[in-house]
Structure formats: C-alpha cells, structure tokens
Amino acid sequence: MRSLRDAAWRARDFFRRDAVLAIACVLAAASCVAVPPDAGYADYIDWRTIGLLFSLMVATSGLARAGVLARACRALVRACKSGGVLIAALVGLTFFVSMVVTNDVALVAFVPLALAALREAGLVRRLAFAIACMTVAANVGSMLTPIGNPQNIYLLSVSGMSAVELVGIMAPYSAAAFVLLAAAIGIAELRDRKRFKHIPSQMAGVNPKAPQESFALRDVLPWIALFVMCLLCVARIAPVWLVVAAAIALALAFDMSALRHVDYALLFTFVAFFVFVGNVARIEVVREAVAALVYGRALLVGVVASQIISNVPAAILVSGFTTDWPALLVGVNIGGLGTLIASMASLISYKQLAVAYPELKTYYFRLFTGLNCAFLAALLLLAAAIA
C-alpha cells in the first residue's frame, strides 16, 4: 500500500514538474498498447531534429554563461534615458536575439535583467507590461528563422523546404508583429511617461560567472564555432552526428555546465510525440479521421492545437497528417500566441516574474492573455488576407 502511495506521489510530482512531457509520455505509452513495439519504431524518431536541437542548446547555453547576452543587455540598458526607451530596448533586443538563440534562451537571459533594471529604475508598475511584451517579442521574432524555435527546426527537417523559403513564409507575420509591438509600447509610453531615477551600472539577476564589463574571447570562441556548425547543419552542409560530437566535446573541454543546462525535458517530449504520432499513423481508422480533420485546415488546426498542448507538440502531431507545410508552419508559429501554454517559452517569463513578484501573477496573467490574444487575432487576419 505504501509503495502505491509513493508511486502516486512521484507521478504527481512528475506531472507538476513538466505537464507537457508527462502528457506526451502517457499518449506514447497508450499508443504502444494499440501498436506493440516492433522494428517500425526505429523510423518514427527524427534524430536529425533531436541532434540539432541538442547542439543548439549547448551552444546557446555556453554563450549565455560566457556573459555575451548579459553584457549586450547591460550595454543597451545603460544607454536608455526613459521608461519607454528602456522597455522598447529590452523588447527589441529580445525580438532580434531570439532569431539566433531561440525564444526560450532569449527569455532566460533577458527577463532577469529586465526585472532588475525596471526595479532599480523605479518602474515596477510597468514591469508586467514589459515582460509580457518581451515574451511576445521572443515568440514572434523567433518564428522568422530556421533556428529561432524548436518547431521551425523540426518542420525544416521534415518538410524539405529551404531556409530561404521558411524565412519568406514567416517574414510578413514577424514584421507585422514587430510593428504592433512598437505601437503597443508607444501607446503605453504616451499613457505613462516617467523618467529614470537611476540607471543601474550592475544589475541583479545576471549570471554570476559572467564578467561585469567584458568577457574573455577564449571563453566565447568555442561556442561561436559550435553555433556556426549548427547553421551549417541547418543548411545540410555539416552532418548532424558531427555537430553533436562537437557539442559534447566542447562542453567537456570548456564548460560541463553547458550540458547540464540543456532542456532534456523538451528533447524527451519530442521523442514521446514522435512515438505517439508514428503509432497513430499506423491505426488506419484513426489516421483517416485525423487526416480528414486536418485536410485543408492545417493552419487553423495548428493554431487550435497549440493553444491546448503548445506549439512544439502541435507541430509534431499535425505534421503526421498533412503535407501543407507552409500552412502548418504559419499555424504553429502564430499559434504560439494566445494562451500561456501555447508556447512553452511563455512559461519561462511567467515563472520568473511569479517568483520575483508573486503579487503581480494574476495581473500579469490577465495582461499577457489579452495582449497575446490581440496579437493572435491580428496575425490570423493577416493569414486570411495572404491566403
């Protein structure tokens, strides 16, 4: 009896720690009952996507721990002279950096810096708005590039489209969202003008290992080299096995913690959904029903599925039943807006704000949801106009 209670507690903790991974594992296990494991399972998993994601996580973790992102943010913040300029700078930096280091890494690096800078500047009352805008910026900026987020990495791998095609498809949405962000910040600034009390020279929340004024080039070069290798892999010039081997070797040689900061839960979520989708595709009745639902509606199904299970699992799930890659690409990317779980990166900023300012949780949730739904509606209208 006690062992059953212990197992129940462990299961509950597992769901609490990572609900999406837990759901993916349950779905994968259930599908294994319908389709018992066999040799066909080996073809389910896209190891190129898994390897590239892993390598990118190691590279961006190494760059962050070397102090590159923190230093760039500090330099930008010091140049700001008003609350509106500071918020615009933080949002703009998040938007553009997310294109090359992924949306979740950009938020992990910049949200703590934003919390500290706004607190020191006496702008706590505008903090929720700033973090919500930064989160939107990370999601809409990252959707422009092949390496900006996990769903783009995956869809580029399975669809056969080129990186240039992906950028061309997503450019109107990313550009429109950037204009909307600028308008939102401008309107907010007009409503609430406030000068800085103090521009902090050193901000809390920065990686303690990162130098305050500079970073050693020797600490950065290995990660830049790995990042370039990842880009070559995206372009299908470098084989993924070589990039993975380089990532592990560089981490062992220069910074073991880069391996510890990899989001292994996300990688296992990918594997679990690969198994689930692969098994469902082998059940004829289910496959035909899902394919009929998705046919001609890949964009809309991608958006709706993202609101429920988040956009990365949605991309994997829907990709098994459509070849309309442009529509699915747009659907799961703009589908990252909306609910708090539509993009798992959004939970990063929410959790960081909730820890630092628990009294702002409810207000932030309402503001975040309203802002995200407005952006989602605008981009859906744009998608309808383009179609």
UniProtKB/TrEMBL annotation:
Question: Is Membrane given among the entry's keywords?
Answer: yes
Its placement in the membrane is given as: Multi-pass membrane protein
Q: Which UniProt key words apply to this protein?
A: Membrane, Transmembrane, Transmembrane helix, Transport
Question: Which residue ranges does UniProt annotate as crossing the membrane?
Answer: 50-70, 82-99, 105-121, 128-147, 167-188, 223-252, 264-286, 298-321, 327-351, 363-386
The record's InterPro entries line, in alphabetical order, gives: Cit_transptr-like_dom (IPR004680), Diverse_Ion_Transporter (IPR051475)
GO annotations under biological process? transmembrane transport
Name of the protein described by the UniProt record: Citrate transporter-like domain-containing protein
